[in-house]
Fold this protein.
Amino acid sequence: MQRYKNDPLFAADAKLITSIAFLPICDISLGIIALETYLPPELQPVLDWFITNYTGRLRMDGMRNQPRFDPANWSVHRRVLERGDRTNNYAEAAHKKLQRAFSCSHPNIWRFIDTLRKEQKLIDADYAMCQQGMEPPPKRRKYRDADRRIHALVQTYQAANPNFDHNYQFPVVYPIHPIIDFLRGVSHNYNMDP
C-alpha cells in the first residue's frame, strides 16, 4: 500500500489490472495474458487474486474455472459504449460523502447515529427534488471529460478475438502492446483510492 501511494509508476501499473473491466469480454483472457508478461513481479500476487476472483484460473483443457464474479457482471465495456453509468460510481460517491460527514475514523455511537440522521435528511430532500421532476446536479467537468475520453478509447478499440468467449485460451500469437496501450490509456482517466 505504501509503495502504491509513493511510487507513481508502480501505481500506474497497478491500475492496469482494474482497467481490464474496460476490455470487451472476448478479450479479457488476452488482457490477463498481456498483464502476466508485462507487470512487475511485485504485482503478480494482486493479478493472481484478480484472476482467481474475476476471470477464473486457466485449466489444463484451455478453459477457465468459474470465477467468483462473472465478467458479464463486472465488465463495463458495453455500458461505456452505451454511455451508461458504471455500476459503482453512485455507491462510491455515497461512501465518500459519508466519510466526509463523519470526519473521523471511529465515531462513537451517538455521533454515528446523529450523522446518519443528518445525512438521511439530505438524501430525503434530494429524493423529493427528483420526485418533483428536478434534474440532478450535473457531473463535474473533469468527470465528464474523463468519461468522453474513456468512451473514445473503448469505441476505437478493435477486439482481437471477437468470436471467442473469455473462457477459452487460444493458441493465437498476439502482440501484447495494443492491449497494454489500451489499458494504460483507460487507466489515465480514472482514479483509484488505495
Notes: Residues 2-85+141-187 form one domain. The longest helix spans residues 109-131. The chain has a mean pLDDT of 84.
